[in-house]
Amino acid sequence: MGNYIVEERRFGPAGRSIYGKLWLPVDVEHPQLIIYAHEIGCTHRRAEPYAKHLAERGLAVFAPDFRGGGERSRSEGGTVDMSVLTEVEDLADVAAEAGGWSFVSGSAPILMGGSQGGFVCAIFAGRNPGAVAAQILLYPAFDIPDAIKRGLASPMDAPEKQYFHGWLWMGRRYFVDMWDYEPYSEPMRYGGPVLILHGDRDGIVPLAYARKAAELYKDARLEVIPGAEHMFKGGEIETALGHIDGFLSGLGYLK
Fold it and tell me: I need a labelling partner for 218 at 20 to 30 A (CA). Which of 9, 12, 73, 147 fits?
């Protein structure tokens, strides 16, 4: 396995700056860049087991904290201002910044994201299909538009600010942005290769949403991980990494 270094990076305007970590292989010229989009309420740390594994194999991984993406985010911005679509905007800023990094091949990164982050990747790729080399979606939350309608007659019924499920302060914008959003419309404009990984015991995002996405994408492969719930852990991550290695090898990014 190859060596790598880990760098902290921050960019963007004051008050709106984005923080992230870069896993950069040593002695690999212009390694292919993967951008990891984390789950709601989380940070770049969710990328660590994947980033270490992939960096050892010669790929660069950058994992930003979304603005307002979680209480422990080191990027600037409040969680009450965050929504799926603000994170799509953040990902666009990250991709633009990474496109100027001369030390990686980042003009068309591979996008990798978990849960809401996977949905964010899918939307960004649909809006910018020529700027994304491939996608790896971990239990992607295509169910968000359906989920936010449960218990609400309209988005304006959501309070201006609420402590969502007792773990994250969220604002009304989160609900407004997704209320009339068709989850498979924009994402399916992406025609490149997509790997979807989903657990068959996921009680947060039903497997049916991943199955539908895999059917609608032009070039998608769905791998179901037996016994896995939402947000892989332990051996489930190892199983996921095996599928990821096979996917990337088939595309010529791993040897």
Answer: 147
